[in-house]
Amino acid sequence: MGIAQRILVTGASGFIGQHVVRVLAERGYSVRAAARHPIVFDSPRVEGVAVGDMSRSFAAEFLVRGVDAVVHAAGLSHARTDLPAAAYTAINVDATRQLAKAARAARVKRFVLMSSIRAQVGVTYPDIVTEATPAAPTDAYGRSKLAAEAVMVKMLEGSSTGWTVLRPVLVYGPGVKGNMAALMRIAGLPLPLPFGALKSRRSLVSVGNLISAVQYVLQTQTAENASFIVADGEVLTMAEIIRCLRRGLGRPEFLLPVPEGSLASLLRLAGKGDFADRLTGDLVVNAARLRRIGWSPSETTSDALVAAAGARQTGKMQVRGPV
Fold first, then answer.
1. How far from 201 is each of 81, 137, 204, 238, CA to CA, in Å?
2. Sequential DSSP letters for 71-85
3. Strands 201-206 vs 30-35: parallel, antiparallel or unpaired
4. Which long-range contacts (CB under 8 A, 24 or more apart) does 254-262 make?
5. Strands 201-206 and 162-168, bridge-based pairing
6. Measured over all CA atoms, what is the biggest interatomic distance in the chain, rounded to whole angstroms?
7. CA–CA dist 202, 172 (Å, integer)
8. Is the torsion defined by CA of 102, 104, 105, 109 positive or negative?
9. Residues of the chain with pLDDT under 70
10. Residues forming the active site
11. pTM exceeding 0.85
12. Distance CA 40, CA 147 (A)
């Protein structure tokens, strides 16, 4: 099967982690699924492991024993706003250090770190973001992700363990939480919405496309010791994104063309300045580096947004595997 056949996935109970575990198992990999609490997957290819609190010392040597690769998806989400910077450091940085150290000692072949575009930029950015864009995270979450990348590289430098950093943009799909889930709730309201004039542009990545990128970098030497932005092939305006969600939720797509400036001012008066920034600011990336080594997204943003919203409507948690 290539470089990796037995894979440790951390954060296996999270939105991304649970999809990674399930799809990799369906694709024939043996998966050790590590989560804070016991979790059961309905597959003989998956070994569930309870790891406890990764902000403290944990049995990293046991987790990596006998695996060919690590997909480190565990961590604190940017959706949390009630936590101090030290909490992000403990889980996103210190846990990565422990796991990378253990992977080095066990001579694991590949270590894939699930980072974030927020390790480079804030909620919005005026130019197109590439891997060459100087890293300037704007909050504790982004700074911890950037620090996690640095500590992983330091721990694995000069070892037989190759590393890959993936920096996905906002991930969406069945079972999504956080900001995208909030946007879906708004899109599902049974009335016309004032978002028809939103021209801000956003890069997104479906969880299906992200998993296909994970599988791809696990199996190719050209992804070794490199960082990659991960995104769908399309860039949509916020109005187009909301229309797709409305369509998937079975709502009429009709959106009122309220000017962006007026909408942003009203939201800020209502104490929703962060939401206003997300609606009216651009965040566009160029993921050409990952495409140059042979990966390509397997589904379009429009179709995947409709499917994700439809899954929320029906309560189904399905995502297509990589092709």
1. 25, 20, 10, 6
2. EE-----TT--SS-H
3. unpaired
4. 254/192, 254/196, 255/192, 255/193, 255/194, 255/195, 255/196, 256/192, 256/193, 256/194, 256/195, 256/196, 257/196, 257/197, 258/194, 258/195, 258/196, 258/197, 259/197, 260/197, 260/198, 260/199, 260/200
5. unpaired
6. 58
7. 13
8. positive
9. 1-4, 78-82, 313-323
10. 141
11. yes
12. 32
Question: Are 64 and 8 in contact, with CB atoms under 8 Å apart?
Answer: yes
- Count, residues in the chain: 323
Contact 116, 89 (CB under 8 A): no
Pairing of strands 110-114, 162-168: parallel
pLDDT tens across 190-248, in order? 999 999 999 999 999 999 999 999 999 999 999 999 999 999 999 999 999 999 999 99
Written as one letter, the residue type at 34 is A
Closest among 282, 290, 266, 273 to 122, alpha carbons compared: 282
- Helix, coil or strand: residue 159: coil
- Enumerate residues 6+ apart whose C-beta is below 8 A from 312: 174, 176, 181, 184, 188, 248, 249
Least Cα distance to 241 among 318, 179, 290, 319 occurs for 179
**Which domains, and CATH codes, for the chain?**
6-237+278-314 (3.40.50.720)
Interatomic CA distance for residues 130 and 120, integer angstroms: 9
Nearest to 32 by CA among 16, 55, 10, 52: 10
Q: What is the DSSP string of 210-250?
A: HHHHHHHHHH-GGGTTEEEEE--S-EEEHHHHHHHHHHHTT
* Cα gap 4→6, rounded to integer Å: 6
Give the span between the Cα atoms of 183 and 279, in whole angstroms: 10
